[in-house]
Amino acid sequence: MTVTDALMAFTFAATLLTLTPGLDTALILRTSTVEGTRKAIQAQMGINAGCLAWAAMLAFGLGALLAVSELAYNLLKWCGAAYLAWLGAQMLLHPRQKMGEADISRGTQNWFMRGFFGNLLNPKVGIFYVSFLPQFIPTGHSLVLWTFGLVMIHVVIGTLWSALLIGSTRRLSGILQREKVVKWLDRTTGTVFLLFAAKLAVSHRPG
């Protein structure tokens, strides 16, 4: 995979993940509608920080293990491929009928921390990074630099999407909660997950 191919493929996958309604989207919509623009921006900054925390864990922890252990790479590869295939099949065959709701009625009033922990504790984000990121790092390139670079692409996409959500809260909220839209996004994402699961299953450890 060339550098250009890797960047384009990851940007597409990250965009699809971002646009699929989930807890982050629900948090931004709810915060923007009820609490106002300022707190919604704080929540988005927290979400971005959560993404960077995932990047650090992958680059300096799991990434180091994958770089030296063929067994660890293969174990993660097959677990990741199996999980992505299962998740993709579930989304394709049993799409949701409505957007998930974020439980933000209780707890800290620090909206940055809400966004941060909401993202950090979201297993879907972790699975996306752990299962997807290694596929988009060209052979011979720095795992640490590419991990942070790719995550920054995801952060930029998420920030732009949140800015659009915050600026058009009422209109987009109605669209994203439509049953047909949610089902279409889930089925599209499920199909892409299945394709990436197959790609991951036949991949080899870089280097």
Question: In summary, what is this structure?
Answer:
The protein is built from 9 helices and no strands. It has helices at residues 3-19, 23-34, 37-68, 70-93, 111-120, 123-132, 143-167, 169-176, 179-201.
Task: Describe the model.
The structure is a single chain. With about 210 residues, the protein is an all-alpha fold. It has 9 helices and no strands. About 5% of the residues have low confidence.
Number of strands: 0
Structural class: mainly alpha
What's the SSE pattern? HHHHHHHHH
Principal-axes shape call: globular
Portion of residues in beta strands equals: under 5%
Largest sheet: none
- Low-confidence residue ranges: 101-108
What is the end-to-end distance? Answer: 13 Å
If helices are DSSP runs of H or I spanning 4 or more residues, what is the number of helices?
A: 9
Q: Into which percent range does the helicity of residues fall?
A: over 70%
Q: What would you report as the Rg, rounded to the nearest angstrom?
A: 17 Å
Mean pLDDT: 78
Q: What is the topological layout?
A:
Layout: H1 3-19, H2 23-34, H3 37-68, H4 70-93, H5 111-120, H6 123-132, H7 143-167, H8 169-176, H9 179-201
Please describe the structure with a list of short key phrases separated by commas or semicolons.
single chain; 207 residues; mainly alpha; 9 helices; 0% strand
